[in-house]
UTP--glucose-1-phosphate uridylyltransferase (Vibrio marisflavi CECT 7928), 290 residues
Amino acid sequence: MIKKCLFPAAGYGTRFLPATKSMPKEMMPVVNKPLIEYGVEEAIQAGIDGMCIVTGRGKHSIMDHFDMNYELEHQIKGTNKEELLVDIRKIIDTANFTYIRQREMKGLGHAILTGRELVGDEPFAVVLADDLCVNKDQGVLAQMVALYKQFRCSIVAVQEVPEDETHKYGIVQGEMIKDGLYRVDDMVEKPEQGTAPSNLAIIGRYILTPDIFELIEQTEPGKGGEIQITDALLKQAKSGCVLAYKFKGKRFDCGSVEGYIEATNFCFENLYLKDKVTAELGKQTTQKES
Ligand code: G1P
């Protein structure tokens, strides 16, 4: 039902300079995988196979990453290095990647509007790759797609944040309609300290119905002089319905150095090492069997 996922990936990643001077921030590795690959995996797990990437200048390596590299594959063929490419090969075989370039940085709303050509007239997901989300069973997007099937309206993922951090996020306020699910009646992009309507912060996962494009077109520049998706969503909430969903799982703000290091430590211990142990056990079982 949700077949496409939009990845706004044109930003500069200035908080990571100089690392991001010539490398896209989406390609920063968390352990051995670039950030954007985690997002793509999450989308695939949610049943999505169309990855629509909004890129900008200097972002070629994202395209190269989600493509074959025949020379490299030839070099490592038959060696134990081959298994390091198993996951990315699966992604390339499963998903279809399309790209469009955003010429000017005019905010998240503008980035999403730029992706309209790739998405078309259907509901779609949005992943901000620098919010890395992990959950043991069902990923955050899969949880949201399941909700979309039930409610058929735009959904934003939210988490509670301390009061002194509300100014960093889009903040929503709404009436709880069931455990962890709110019907939004107000939302503000990065409210000034002490003015937030709640402590429910939007994190980088959205399901949007296609009427959002028209609403973005009608949205004037807001916070920071940028066209904010939060403002367009507020219009949608007022005229129809937007839900806010307190997702199950952990989210790391990989747009900040602290969050990135936390994510790295977490993924090393909980994903990378565990995968290694499983692979090792698998090998031993196969050896025993043969
Ligand atoms: C964007 C959104 C904001 C949201 C945040 C989540 O802000 O505009 O509403 O809370 O992502 O990461 P950014 O962090 O890109 O400034």
